[in-house]
Prior knowledge:
The complex is a heterodimer of chains A (237) and B (280).
Chain A: E1 3-14, E2 19-30, E3 35-39, H1 46-51, H2 55-61, E4 68-75, E5 78-81, H3 82-86, E6 94-97, H4 109-113, H5 115-119, H6 126-136, H7 151-163, E7 169-173, H8 181-194, E8 199-203, H9 207-213, E9 216-224, E10 230-234
Parallel strand pairs in A: 3-8, 3-9, 6-7, 7-8
Antiparallel strand pairs in A: 1-2, 1-4, 4-5, 9-10
Helix pairs in contact in A: 8-9
Chain B: H1 2-8, H2 10-18, H3 21-26, H4 28-43, H5 45-51, H6 62-71, H7 73-108, H8 112-124, H9 127-137, H10 141-166, H11 170-178, H12 183-197, H13 200-225, H14 232-241, H15 245-274
Helix pairs in contact in B: 1-2, 4-15, 6-15, 7-10, 7-13, 7-15, 8-10, 9-10, 9-13, 10-12, 10-13, 13-14, 13-15, 14-15
Amino acid sequence: MTGFKFDLKELTIGDKKHTLTIEGIHFCLNSPERSIALLGDSGMGKTTIFRSLLSKYVQKWSLHSSFRFDCVHKLNDREFSAEDIQNDRRIVKIGFATQFPYFFESQTVFENVFAPLKWKKLKLDRKNKEEYLKKFGLDTLTQKSISILSGGQRQLANIARMLVVKPQLAIIDECFSSMDEKMAYEKIKFILDYFNDIIFLVTSHRQSDVEAFGGKVIRLKKEQHRSGKFYVTQEDA
Amino acid sequence: MGIGLLRNGKLWSLLKKISPKPIFRKSRGIHLAVKFIGFFGFLSIPHILNKLGANPEIFRTWEQIAKEFWTNPGHHLFSLWTTFHLGVISIFISLAIGLFFGILFAFFDRWIGPFETVAKFIWSIPLIVVAVYLNIFLANTTLYIIITGVFLGYFPILSFTYKKAIEENEGIISLVSSFNLSKIAEFRFFRLREIFGNLAVPLAISVPLAYIGVTMGEFTVGRVAGSDDCGLGSDFQFAMQYSKFEKVYVAIILMVFLVFISGVIFDEIVKLKENRPNRR
Lengths: 237, 280
């Protein structure tokens, strides 16, 4: 792994009344750096910045009247631009775990966590699957219905499901918010150790979670153009 | 000031105490009982009107109605069966049409605009107009009755299917984005599951409507054929024509029962699903 360079020059989404403009978000992760966290107030666009890596979101935003998107990213010498993302030319494998995950409520934890293998037509034998769940501390819940899990356990199952297909970049969007700080710390350390070739892009409101990832931190701020319009950008290091 | 006193005073707390709302929320049994009381209350309207002196010539007592039913139970039960099974067929066809077009429009995310306008227009035309028109062109009475049932039954299913399939569900969108799933996979793994898992919601509206459509079709057929062998609707029409008001009441009671019970069943399924323990 050589590194990841993220350069979001501009992203404008929304209609004429409500527009979110993000400009000049750039960072570079060189090995052994493995994570970056975005910090900022609610509604500043932390999640949106990372969602801009995913084609489905960009395609949806492109229907907005004021949509503008310009970026050039690079992962392990492979460059991909706004056009590549918008046209769904998937150059890198990106996983995305959201804060409020969707699960098949009538199915077990086991079925939910390994569902992506079926979707992507991948195979993993039963023993490895059980070991995988054990590493996440979900082994005692394997055959339990996902609907009986606590908020923190659901978030953990969501992360386990996202990582089962081993993405190159993993976006973790406030996925530790329902866990207590100690549990969140333990799980973050485990994830960093076990998935040592994945780059983590993290958003969180909790300082301890960001510190547990131990990587770079970017703080977002709001600025005003000469025209009077507000936009979100990053604070200088 | 008066309202303020009422809100803060003892009277307010007393009103809150005796308010039936929390009981309704807590007990589905009581809720259901109130529905049944409402159903029988509806059936008592002729008695109430009679007490008020309205239409005494068409009024019949419960004994007269019961006597009419027991003198010819086979006929009435056959009418009920005819309406019931034609309704079931209409509902299945409504389901097929509603699901097919709902999924098709949601998948391609086009055509729904003009189609919805046309569908709403058809839906808003008084059914009797549609029924009479259809009756002119269709020689097959059974087919005609089914079509009038489908006319009313399909739209809630189509509308629900379409809306559920394009619903902005952050969880689903994040999974589709994360695993880069195709639209076919999105529908196969998530959207269809969501639609079929919640089908009781549109059916609670669609099934009673289909029965209303079916009885309306039977009513028109009965009028044209001048017979009472095409279900409860034709029983009603025939009995009205020959001033057999006991038979009219039997037909009304069975019709209302059918519409009411079909609605209640699906309504209860929806509530059971919503109140399922452990569901988040």
